[in-house]
């Protein structure tokens, strides 16, 4: 995609949603980290349902340790892979207490050393909590990057690298949120809603989906 088209692509998404935010609910940086770890292979809606009660009781790593594994599992048992996620949350909480005085480190490489924290999770925390211009490539962003031609790549890292290279200011801070939300609500996996897409003329996806009343249901 040409530079001018990339700029216009983001400009339109920004115009429609000037201040995009993560849909995960949290009250502080530690809760954000926990929520993102829990969101792996799960929906934000499902995570929020589980964490509302949990975060009403737990706001710090030490409080999570005091709750213990069984207590945590009881709160997150509706989330997929909750057994392994509970172990990771407790393990990372112990590390935060032992090494970082209970604080979440503002460094991507350090975050990735924590149990259950991969590059995508670290990028989300760096962006949402610390304002870093990072690009967290989830399944939605990966699809949008490739389908539209904005940031094609065979792997999430390849898409991230392309976004790092081509995303212009002033859009870098919120770029990954715009793209994730666009993929979640408009450029859907099975049937993209092209008829209401604000960047339809810039997108390289050829078989544009017609409106429901004109196409098949």
Automatic annotation (TrEMBL):
DNA repair enzyme that has both DNA N-glycosylase activity and AP-lyase activity. The DNA N-glycosylase activity releases various damaged pyrimidines from DNA by cleaving the N-glycosidic bond, leaving an AP (apurinic/apyrimidinic) site. The AP-lyase activity cleaves the phosphodiester bond 3' to the AP site by a beta-elimination, leaving a 3'-terminal unsaturated sugar and a product with a terminal 5'-phosphate. PANTHER family: A/G-SPECIFIC ADENINE GLYCOSYLASE/ENDONUCLEASE III (PTHR10359), ENDONUCLEASE III (PTHR10359:SF18). This is Endonuclease III. Its EC number is 4.2.99.18. Belongs to the Nth/MutY family. Pfam families: EndIII_4Fe-2S, HHH, HhH-GPD. The keyword 4Fe-4S applies. Residues 38-185 form the HhH-GPD domain. It comes from the Bacteria. It comes from Rhizorhapis suberifaciens. Its cofactor is [4Fe-4S] cluster. InterPro entries: DNA_glycosylase, Endonuclease-III-like_CS2, Endonuclease3_FeS-loop_motif, HhH-GPD_domain, HhH_base_excis_C, HhH_motif, Nth. It catalyses: 2'-deoxyribonucleotide-(2'-deoxyribose 5'-phosphate)-2'-deoxyribonucleotide-DNA = a 3'-end 2'-deoxyribonucleotide-(2,3-dehydro-2,3-deoxyribose 5'-phosphate)-DNA + a 5'-end 5'-phospho-2'-deoxyribonucleoside-DNA + H(+). [4Fe-4S] cluster binds at residues 187, 194, 197, 203.
């Amino acid at each position: 995609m040409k530079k001018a088209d990339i700029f216009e692509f983001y400009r339109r998404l920004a115009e429609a949603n000037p201040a995009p935010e993560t849909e995960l609910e949290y009250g502080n940086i530690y809760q954000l980290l926990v929520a993102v770890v829990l969101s792996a292979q799960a929906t934000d809606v499902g995570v929020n349902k589980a964490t509302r009660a949990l975060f009403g009781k737990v706001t710090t790593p030490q409080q999570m340790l005091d709750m213990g594994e069984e207590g945590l599992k009881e709160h997150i048992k509706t989330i997929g892979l909750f057994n392994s996620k509970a172990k990771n949350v407790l393990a990372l909480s112990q590390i935060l207490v032992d090494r970082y005085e209970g604080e979440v480190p503002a460094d991507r490489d350090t975050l990735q050393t924590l149990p259950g924290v991969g590059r995508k999770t670290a990028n989300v925390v760096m962006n949402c909590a610390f304002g870093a211009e990072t690009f967290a490539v989830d399944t939605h962003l990966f699809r949008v990057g490739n389908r539209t031609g904005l940031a094609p790549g065979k792997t999430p890292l390849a898409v991230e690298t392309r976004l790092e290279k081509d995303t212009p200011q002033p859009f870098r801070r919120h770029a990954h949120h715009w793209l994730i939300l666009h993929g979640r609500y408009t450029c859907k996996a099975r049937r993209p809603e092209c008829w209401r897409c604000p960047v339809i003329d810039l997108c390289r996806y050829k078989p544009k989906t017609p409106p429901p009343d004109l196409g098949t249901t």
